[in-house]
Amino acid sequence: MAKNTDKDLLKDKGFLSQRQDDYFSMRLHAAGGNLTSDYLRAVADAADRYGKGYVHVTSRQGIEIPFVHLENTDAASEQMNSAGIGPGASGKKIRAVVACQGDRVCKRGLIDCQGICEKIDKLYFGKPVPYKFKIAVTGCPASCLKVQENDFGIMGFTDPVFIEENCVMCRLCEKACEMSAITIDNGSLYLDMHKCVSCGLCVKACRKDAMQVKGQGYTIFVGGKVGKRPRMGDMFFRTGNEEVVFDILEKTIDYYRENALEGERLGDVIDRCGLDQFGETIKYSRQK
User: Fold this and answer.
1) What is the pLDDT of residues 179-232, one digit of tens each?
2) How far apart are CA 265 and CA 1, in angstroms?
């Protein structure tokens, strides 16, 4: 049986204790679920050699190889490192970023989620925090990556504007809108921005430039989490500038490190101190 100190060291190397004595799941570093064929071949080889021939895909797009025996942990680590694959993060660290394929692949994608994910991963993966910190990037308001359930979430948006003189009342935008934010009645079109979720589908559907882009960029959510005490993230800020997104992220992590009590997630700190105080501290006012 491994000693507790040994288990702590193993955890830093990505090995998580199983319920079976002296067996571990080897967590591997993966960002945004974007895995190369070389990565997959190396993982399959390690699973055959050191596990039971299968892997577990985690809810955060990660890879774990279960049933690695204690006596094989060093060899398994060395094999992964030689393939350029480092350990995954656990404990009091910034976890791997999750991201959809964004505008590189998805028809609905409004931002380059994988590009943003790669930048965040290089800057912050595995860095120490008071408890844990999870980041998600999603391409549009469909929120396939559930950014509202993460400490820091980034969502693409496109705000439409109606140009009446270009409209031929073809109703393509009305049909494309899944939120019933566009209605056409008696030859007039009405765009209800209270119902609009800024998905941009009406802009893509319009063939006459009657629906155009008014604004586009990134919506930032803060303070989300799941678990025993779930909390939906607060929609905090919108910007068309990627540099602003990274500035807010940097200041948010600093705020969390400076203000969190033992065992608190970012959302707990915001609930205790207030969202307005959070905004004042990081020098960005919440957009309502």
Assistant:
1) 999 999 999 999 999 999 999 999 999 999 999 999 999 999 999 999 999 999
2) 32
- Give me the number of domains the chain comprises: 2
If asked whether residues 50 and 107 sit together in one domain, one would say no
pLDDT reported for residue 3: 46
Residues 99 and 78 in one domain: no
Which residues constitute the domain of residue 140? 91-288
The number of beta carbons lying within 10 Å of the beta carbon of residue 35 is: 16
Residue with the two structure tokens 């940097």 = 250
Side chain identity, residue 7? K
Are 72 and 51 within 8 A, CB to CB? no
Residues of the chain with pLDDT > 70, as a percent, come to 98
Pair 160, 214: CB distance under 8 Å = yes
Residue 64 bridge partners (DSSP): 27, 56
Are 78 and 95 part of one and the same domain? no
How far is residue 25's CA from residue 15's CA, in Å, rounded to a whole number?
6
Structure tokens at 151: 């400490």
* pLDDT tens profile 268-288: 999 999 999 999 999 999 987
Q: Angle formed by the axes of helices 242-259 and 113-124, to 10°?
A: 40
For residue 72, report the phi and psi dihedrals to the nearest 5 degrees. Answer: -105, 0
